[in-house]
């Protein structure tokens, strides 16, 4: 029998068709299931922005019955990055090989237990840079969390997932580890509050170490009151502290390094502190020069680079000391595991981790000496009432998968600013300051080591006023965003003037109103709004604005002229005549006032 005949017999056999049908159905079902799983996976990423490595729920400890007050963190949810131990879970350190080669934790980390005892609910662990060794937030194994505000840009790291979870409103707050910027940098890039407490104040028991002399448990939050409550729990702060007058010190040299215009940073801080009670007028300093004069051990870390000014040179040396100290302690902690397991590492962290493990450290004592001298230097500068204001980072966020040369430049410019609090052990909070050219801005406030409550209270006190100023500046068009010395209220006035010239009276009134909200003592703002009201026929409002302007500036000729015009329009001729006469006393050759005076005198005669 030929092969052709055999095929005919087989095809005519019903059993064959059953087998073929089942096989095809199986293929179709398998294809559909695979597609469904892929779609489900994609939906999950979209839903949680890829922030989580593992989802689970840790319920809070039993709460006291009424009438006892609720626990301070009741009804709040939080996430933590993958360095915190949770009983019966393996702490993965952001790397699958670490997770594979380690056992479940026997106890839960002290800080996590404290949060649960105080009423918070944990909803899972978040993505992070592998072994806490990176500041981009990218992870090739678990995926890079999506920055909610800027999806095509890095979220920042190492605690990227925790920052994203807060920014995306998936949780009320989150915790992470800040070694060389792991909380401050992603908080800045994701547009949330990020708090690095004083070194050693929050417990690190049950937390995987990167560099124990630098590691600090940090907090992310959108709301400063939540940040305040969480910090009080983790740091066991006293609820009451004597109020002190605050000294604001602006690091001018660092803001000059930044690519952000100063009217979006320094001038916002200055404007707010002028209005709030209990703040001295901001003072300005060159922090690089100050550190140069007060941290002599940095001489061991200087490069022979003649084209850098002393201050910038010093901060670069400080960053070098920080990186060397981190690498030395990381090697001490993890060299044996890395050499034994030879873990698969992502391209963004493999080079620095290899450099840490293979480095030979000759002057280890100098690392720690710089740290000691930095703490003393900042203590002398800030004492118990000083707040140092710095840019959180010098640059805006990088795009995902940036070239290695861009990453190197980014690191070189980020580390000097991050090293100040890291090497001094001081506490630092980064606060969102809106956007510049579609990139988020972060400005940081640093207080002396141990002054955590003072810093938290200061940020809580300033936050609403800061955000008001930020909103005003952010709303300005690019054409008005050029003068680094111009205040937000002045910029709004200019926008009002532009609307007025364009005969957009209602818009002009709106801009002048916003300017007045920021500065109620400026007679020109009221006088300009009065001019717009006159064009709209709102004579009573125009009169009121001119009266206010005159109370602030008795020599404001335009205010007298415009009030006279408003009064004349509603037939108050005598009062209007007096206004025009006042204008002529101040400016005898004013033609408009002369014509109005003659006109009214004729009407009243």
Structure write-up:
The protein has helices at residues 3-12, 14-48, 96-100, 110-117, 160-167, 184-190, 224-235, 252-257, 266-275, 287-294, 310-341, 347-358, 364-382, 404-424, 452-474, 488-501, 505-518, 523-536, 539-552, 557-569, 573-586, 591-604; strands at residues 52-58, 77-81, 121-126, 173-178, 193-196, 216-221, 247-251, 283-285, 386-391, 427-436, 439-447. Helices cover 52% and strands 11% of the residues. The relative contact order is 0.08. The chain contains 22 helices and eleven strands. Residues 1-12, 15-20, 22-45, 304-308 and 481-485 have low confidence and may be disordered. The chain is α/β, with parallel strands linked by helices and 605 residues long. Helix 9 (266-275) crosses helix 15. The longest helix has 35 residues, at 14-48. An eleven-stranded mixed β-sheet has the order 1-3-2-4-6-5-10-11-9-7-8, with helices on both faces. The chain is elongated, with a radius of gyration of 32 Å.
Topology of this protein?
Blueprint: H1 3-12, H2 14-48, E1 52-58, E2 77-81, H3 96-100, H4 110-117, E3 121-126, H5 160-167, E4 173-178, H6 184-190, E5 193-196, E6 216-221, H7 224-235, E7 247-251, H8 252-257, H9 266-275, E8 283-285, H10 287-294, H11 310-341, H12 347-358, H13 364-382, E9 386-391, H14 404-424, E10 427-436, E11 439-447, H15 452-474, H16 488-501, H17 505-518, H18 523-536, H19 539-552, H20 557-569, H21 573-586, H22 591-604
Parallel strand pairs: 2-3, 2-4, 7-8, 7-9
Antiparallel strand pairs: 1-3, 4-6, 5-6, 5-10, 9-11, 10-11
């Amino acid at each position: 029998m030929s092969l052709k005949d055999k095929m005919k017999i087989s095809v005519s056999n019903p059993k064959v068709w059953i087998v073929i049908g089942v096989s095809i159905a199986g293929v179709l079902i398998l294809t559909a299931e695979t597609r469904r799983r892929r779609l489900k996976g994609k939906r999950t990423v979209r839903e949680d922005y890829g922030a989580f490595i593992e989802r689970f729920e840790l319920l809070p400890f039993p709460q006291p019955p009424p009438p006892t007050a609720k626990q301070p963190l009741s009804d709040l949810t939080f996430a933590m990055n993958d360095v915190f131990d949770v009983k019966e879970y393996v702490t993965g350190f952001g790397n699958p090989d670490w997770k594979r080669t380690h056992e479940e934790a026997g106890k839960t980390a002290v800080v996590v237990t404290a949060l649960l005892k105080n009423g918070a609910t944990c909803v899972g662990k978040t993505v992070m840079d592998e072994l806490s060794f990176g500041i981009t937030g990218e992870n090739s194994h678990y995926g890079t969390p999506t920055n909610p505000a800027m999806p095509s840009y890095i979220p920042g790291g190492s605690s990227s997932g925790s920052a994203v979870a807060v920014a995306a409103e998936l949780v009320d707050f989150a915790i992470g580890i800040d070694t060389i910027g792991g909380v401050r940098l992603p908080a800045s890039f994701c547009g949330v509050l990020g708090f690095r407490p004083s070194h050693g104040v929050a417990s690190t028991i049950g937390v995987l170490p990167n560099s124990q002399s630098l590691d600090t448990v940090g907090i992310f939050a959108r709301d400063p009151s939540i940040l305040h409550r969480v910090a009080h729990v983790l740091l066991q702060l006293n609820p009451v502290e004597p109020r002190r007058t605050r000294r604001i010190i602006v690091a001018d040299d660092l803001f000059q390094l930044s690519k952000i215009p100063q009217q979006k940073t320094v001038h916002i801080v200055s404007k707010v502190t002028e209005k709030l009670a209990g703040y001295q007028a901001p003072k300005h300093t060159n922090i690089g020069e100050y550190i140069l004069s007060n941290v002599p051990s940095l001489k061991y870390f200087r490069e022979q680079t003649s084209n850098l000014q002393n201050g910038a040179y010093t901060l670069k040396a400080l960053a070098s000391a920080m990186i060397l100290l981190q690498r030395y302690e990381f090697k001490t902690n993890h060299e044996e595991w890395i050499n034994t397991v030879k873990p698969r590492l992502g391209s963004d962290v493999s080079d620095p981790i290899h450099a840490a493990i293979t480095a030979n450290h000759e002057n280890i004592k100098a690392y720690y000496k710089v740290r000691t001298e930095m703490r003393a230097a900042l203590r002398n500068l800030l004492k118990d009432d000083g707040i140092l204001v710095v840019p959180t980072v010098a640059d805006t966020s990088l795009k995902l998968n940036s070239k290695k040369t861009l990453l190197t430049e980014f690191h070189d410019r980020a580390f000097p600013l991050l090293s100040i609090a890291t090497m001094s052990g001081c506490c630092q909070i980064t606060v969102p300051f809106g956007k510049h050219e579609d990139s988020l801005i972060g400005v940081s406030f640093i207080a002396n080591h141990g002054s955590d409550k003072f810093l938290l209270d200061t940020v809580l006190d300033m936050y609403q006023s800061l955000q008001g100023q930020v909103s005003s500046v952010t709303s300005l068009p690019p054409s008005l965003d050029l003068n680094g010395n111009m205040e937000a209220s002045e910029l709004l006035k200019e926008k009002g003037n532009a609307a007025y010239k364009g005969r957009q009276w209602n818009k002009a009134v709106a801009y002048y109103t916003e300017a007045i909200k920021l500065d109620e003592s400026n007679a020109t703002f009221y006088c300009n709004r009065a001019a717009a009201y006159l064009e709209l026929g709102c004579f009573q409002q125009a009169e009121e604005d001119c009266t206010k302007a005159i109370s602030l500036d008795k020599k404001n000729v335009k205010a007298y002229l415009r009030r006279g015009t408003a009064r004349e329009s509603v037939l108050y001729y005598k009062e209007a005549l007096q206004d025009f006469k006042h204008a002529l006393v101040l400016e005898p050759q004013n033609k408009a006032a002369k014509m109005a005076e003659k006109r009214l005198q004729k009407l009243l005669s």
